[in-house]
Amino acid sequence: MKKLLTVGLVILALLLGVWASGPFLAVHQMRKAVAAQDTAALSQHIDFPALRANFKQQLDDHLVRRAGADAQSSLLGALAVRMAGGLTNGLVEVLATPAGLGALIEGRGLLHRVTGSGIDPGDSYAHTGPSDPLEGAKYRFESLSRFTITLHPESERPLVVGMTRDGLRWRVTDIRLPLDAMALPGE
What we know:
This is DUF2939 domain-containing protein. InterPro entries: DUF2939 (IPR021330). It is a single chain. This protein is of the alpha+beta class. The protein has one domain. The chain has helices at 2-35, 39-43, 48-73, 75-95, 98-106, 110-115; strands spanning 138-143, 146-151, 159-166, 169-176. The chain has a four-stranded antiparallel β-sheet. Strand 2 and strand 3 (159-166) form a beta hairpin. The protein starts with a helix and ends in an 11-residue tail after the last strand. The model is unreliable at 110-119 and 183-187 (pLDDT under 50).
């Protein structure tokens, strides 16, 4: 009876170890793919339909909140908000690609070009990305099927990447863009 209980505990410990190490293995593989700029390897760890819906919802919500209630109450304002909402589709399609996600994770992109961070002052077109894009990231299990990675946690604009478990496989399904922390030109 003791032998059976010991074997059961060992099997349970192994299953728990496999479950707990799953997101860390996926993060390691994503880190290698981003560093090598291997978009095919990176795309294996991303649920693109869920991510597109997530980006669209965030951008549309941000746009509506920035427009304010006054703009939405008028017919012309509501039409302008709706037209601008249609433009977010293009941004979603750019972001929800392996190259776009690699740029987000690595810290490259339009936001960094506008703010000037990550750019060599001598060359306005060159990008000096971090040697390890996930260096200093904070990892956290939110539930048995949800894991988050907070990139650049010390900055005022952290990027939170959410992973969801599907069987034993972990995939990126959510990236919370730091839209509220961004100031638009003229503010």
